């Protein structure tokens, strides 16, 4: 899925991007209908930047509440955090990621780390190398990817955080670290990059599950093409991650197609699956809640209990933040009813 976000640095730039499980978080009891360990959560990578900008978050009663604690009280048990290599400004660099991960860990939340392997957004249309890696040959590029992965994970380890899942690449529909790792032109290179990340993750956290993430989770043709290519080139991964961004008119069909795709991925590759990004317009909260309830049910029903969970992408984004409108908080800084789906 492509998400259009508007950022202001020196000029306004348009970018297309888009275990300590407490069983549900806060005072909410575990949902007995869900498989044990089912992840319900959100990517909240913007939270420190939003706080720095003076944004505040409130529960439904109007009481100011720290963002992660608020999401936990709504039934979430997991946070996802993106990592950029040398971003400017420094949001999503190693220090920022560690600070957020420590906060999550202290709340008893599970952690997913999402390596973009870029200085900025990586998505289906953008997989730019970090500036410091741009001139490297392929062997050096693989080493840089591995070294960066190891360094970030060791910093988390040194701060007492053990991520349960680690993504090697973000929405890698056509590979990553272009042009070297572009899947449509060199699938073998992409597979080698995935393996460099996989081995680096396992070297620090042997029990962490490594995710390869592709958008448009309803598109079985795309997923078969990419994962057949990775498999045929010796790539290693544990979980197939998916994004899903329907509109109010399409969500039912998209959910059904996504379930078929998930079951096919399990059957075809004997791997687990997970919805690592979802979203819908903040002002369609009733439809979004219906979408999420249905999707959580479908992921939970995946063959062999291999559907691991559902994560909302930046629900705390209030309307207009960075031009993004697919969050799940309203203009007053309160969560919409969409997030009741996670209770």
Report on this structure:
- The protein is built from eight helices and ten strands.
- It is of the alpha/beta class and 343 residues long.
- It has a single domain, classed as TIM Barrel.
- Strands 3-4-5-6-7-8-9-10 form an eight-stranded parallel β-barrel, surrounded by five helices. The protein has a two-stranded antiparallel ribbon with strand order 1-2.
- Strand 4 (78-83), helix 3 (94-106) and strand 5 form a beta-alpha-beta unit.
- The longest helix is centred in the middle third of the chain and has 21 residues, at 138-158.
- The chain is globular and about 55 Å long.
- The two termini are 26 Å apart.
- Mean pLDDT is 92; it is low at 1-30.
Task: Lay out the secondary structure.
Elements: E1 4-8, E2 12-16, E3 39-43, H1 47-52, H2 67-73, E4 78-83, H3 94-106, E5 110-115, H4 138-158, E6 165-168, H5 187-204, E7 209-214, H6 220-232, E8 239-244, H7 251-269, E9 272-278, H8 285-300, E10 307-313
Helix pairs in contact: 4-5, 5-6, 6-7, 7-8
Give structural attributes.
single chain; 343 residues; alpha/beta; TIM Barrel; eight-stranded parallel barrel; two-stranded antiparallel sheet; 33% helix; globular
């Amino acid at each position: 899925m492509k998400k259009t976000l508007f950022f202001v640095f020196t000029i306004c730039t348009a970018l297309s991007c888009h275990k300590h499980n407490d069983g549900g978080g806060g005072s909410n009891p575990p949902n007995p209908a869900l498989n044990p360990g089912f992840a319900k959560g959100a990517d909240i990578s913007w939270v420190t930047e939003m706080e720095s900008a003076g944004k505040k978050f409130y529960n439904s009663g109007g009481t100011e509440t720290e963002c992660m604690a608020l999401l936990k009280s709504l039934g979430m048990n997991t946070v996802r955090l993106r990592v950029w290599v040398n971003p400017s400004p420094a949001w999503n660099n190693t220090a920022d990621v560690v600070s957020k991960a420590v906060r999550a860990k202290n709340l008893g939340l599970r952690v997913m780390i999402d390596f973009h392997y870029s200085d900025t957004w990586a998505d289906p249309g953008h997989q730019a190398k970090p500036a410091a890696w741009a001139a490297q040959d392929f062997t050096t590029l693989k080493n840089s990817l591995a070294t960066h992965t190891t360094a970030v994970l060791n910093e988390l380890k040194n701060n007492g955080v053990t991520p349960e899942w680690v993504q090697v690449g973000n929405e890698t529909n056509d590979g990553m670290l272009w042009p070297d790792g572009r899947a449509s032109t060199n699938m073998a290179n992409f597979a080698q990059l995935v393996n460099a990340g996989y081995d680096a993750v396992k070297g620090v956290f042997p029990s962490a599950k490594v995710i390869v993430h592709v958008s448009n989770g309803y598109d079985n043709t795309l997923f078969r093409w990419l994962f057949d290519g990775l498999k045929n080139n010796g790539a290693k991964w544990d979980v197939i991650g998916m994004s899903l961004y329907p509109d109010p008119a399409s969500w039912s069909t998209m959910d059904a197609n996504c379930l078929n795709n998930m079951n096919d991925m399990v059957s075809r590759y004997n791997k687990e699956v997970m919805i690592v990004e979802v979203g819908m317009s903040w002002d369609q909260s009733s439809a979004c809640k219906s979408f999420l309830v249905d999707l959580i049910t479908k992921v939970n029903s995946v063959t062999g209990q291999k559907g691991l969970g559902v994560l909302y992408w930046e629900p705390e984004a209030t309307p207009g933040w960075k031009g993004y409108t697919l969050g799940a908080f309203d203009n007053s800084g309160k969560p919409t009813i969409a997030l009741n789906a996670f209770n």
